[in-house]
Amino acid sequence: MKKQQVEHIHTRDVLQVFWSHAARYKGRMFLMLALIAFANAVEVFVPLLYKRFFDLLSGDVSSGAQAIGELLLGTIVLVAIAHGLEWVAWRIASLLTAWFQPRVMVDLERTSLAYLHEHSYRFFTNNFAGALVRKVTRLARAFEDFADQIQFHFVPLTFTLIGSLTVLATRSLALSGILFVWIVLFLFVNLLYARWKLTYDFKSAVADSETTGALSDSITNAVTVKLFTGRLFEMDLFSAVTEVMRKAQMLTWRLGEYMDAFQSAFMFVIEFVLMYVAVKLWQQGLLTIGDFALIQGALLGIFFKIWDFGRAIRHLFTALADADEMVKILKLPLEVMDTRRAKELRVSQARIEFRDVTFSFNKTRRVLNRLQLVIRPKEKVALVGPSGAGKSTVTKLLFRFFDLEDGAILVDGQDIAKVTQESLRAAIALVPQEPILFHRSILDNIRYGRRDATDEEVFEAARKAHAHEFILELPQQYETFVGERGVKLSGGERQRVAIARAILKDAPILVLDEATSSLDSESESLIQEALEELMRNKTTIVIAHRLSTIMKMDRIAVIQKGKVVDTGTHAELLKKSGGMYKKLWEIQAGGFNK
């Protein structure tokens, strides 16, 4: 599987994502690159000054002692001015970098989060939250690494190589030619090696993501680990995953060391060859003593930059590998999308119709089969049926978490597949079976139902949900942070916060998915009145097993094998002997009577 992932990686996609974000600030970006280019051009010019300096000292420039001294001092001043200009250019470029890179990195993270939220319900059920977080942050970090290589290695290297070869050619075409051939070979070998090593970099990145996902999964389920004494088992699992990552990283680092050894030897060779040829040319009177300083200066500059090229090209490809996973998600087509001409949903009566709805999670599992159901405006309908009948799927499809295989769902005659997802979901409030809260204050969690609500409106919603009482007993009351997924609150407290959030949203359509299942009898009695208030004047769909909840519904729809097999009130359905509802009722009632 991993091999297949590597084969489908396209560097061009990563570069397109990077460029689309960097181009927003291209004015400052090009200024920054121009300053870096200028600084390196000045750096190439400095060895010419040192050549002049040593030629003066060696007497290759004929002049009087006084004049030579003045020329030497003048040369030193020129060197100082050159270094000063180089320093100024680098400082300004560095300040621009400090402005440019963080903005692009933040933009990449914002784009990633925005696109992740556009992905479907199925996407999030198939991916670890921790692994997704890692991919987002790694994309931003990869851009930083990529930009660093371009700014501080490839641009300087380009100008250093071109400048040094040009300067050297003015003194000896032979030396410049030898150096040019060596540079081409050096760069070519590095590029081939880096591309070959890229496969192992990708595998290392995948192993790192899997390690993060395993770590996140284990920590998220820390309580379950304790309950089932699974600490050693979890350590064994994590050790196996991290061992794969260790081997992948060790291999990539070892391969890097092999290349470093090759580069060192290759540099020794060219230094020896150039100095050998230079001596021969000097013996022929074609070079001066200052030319040796020029050659050494050029070689030192080239060695420093080209050694960094070897590392930079590997860092560059590593950055591409790190960015690839998130970029693939950014390039992944959305499963559920608004149509091109999607309109805002307009809810006047909140009539809901499921018309021949057919849906399958996969080819072998059909959940709903031509389901037909009409829910009248402000009607309260309970969905009942055996486990796996498709009750929860009905509500997920109403939210358009999935697209239908066939049929349509209509709200006030409007096909929900042809309206915007935002307007559809704004018209529906949900109280789930297991509400998950943000690690934020209780105030913020309730206000999420209507984010422009005042504090007093939040307090009023909490009162109606009978959450106000327990909130006031908390150390920081409404400013209390509830912990990750709301773990600092009990199940009943989380449920009441979720109900308060739904009350505050005040949407015309309400879905209650086992909304009282986490409550004890006392807590349930506290919020039954709140639920009745919440359901008033709203079209309501309730999935519930508790008899007290079902009996209060206007109508009950019995779902079996993906179809509505019966509808009616509680009393009407009980009169039908042999009906599914009566069987379910007798099972529950029998349990209560024991």
Largest sheet: 6 strands, mixed
The CATH class designation of the largest domain is Mainly Alpha
The unreliable regions are 1-8
CATH superfamily of the largest domain: ABC transporter type 1, transmembrane domain
**Overall outline:** elongated
Mean pLDDT: 80
- State the helicity in percent bands: 55-70%
Please tally the helical runs, counting DSSP H or I stretches of 4 or more residues. 20
Structural class: alpha/beta
Strand count: 10
Q: What is the count of distinct domains? A: 2
Span of the ends, CA to CA: 54 Å
| Lateral arrangement of strands in the main beta sheet | 6-7-8-3-9-10
Name the beta content range: 5-15%
Helix and strand element order: HHHHHHHHHHEEEHEEHEHHHHEHEHEEHH
The name of the CATH architecture of the largest domain is Up-down Bundle
Radius of gyration: 35 Å
The fold-level CATH name of the largest domain is: ABC transporter transmembrane region fold
Features:
594 residues; alpha/beta; ABC transporter transmembrane region fold; Rossmann fold; 2 domains; six-stranded mixed beta sheet; four-stranded antiparallel beta sheet; 20 helices; 10 strands; 66% helix; elongated; disordered N terminus
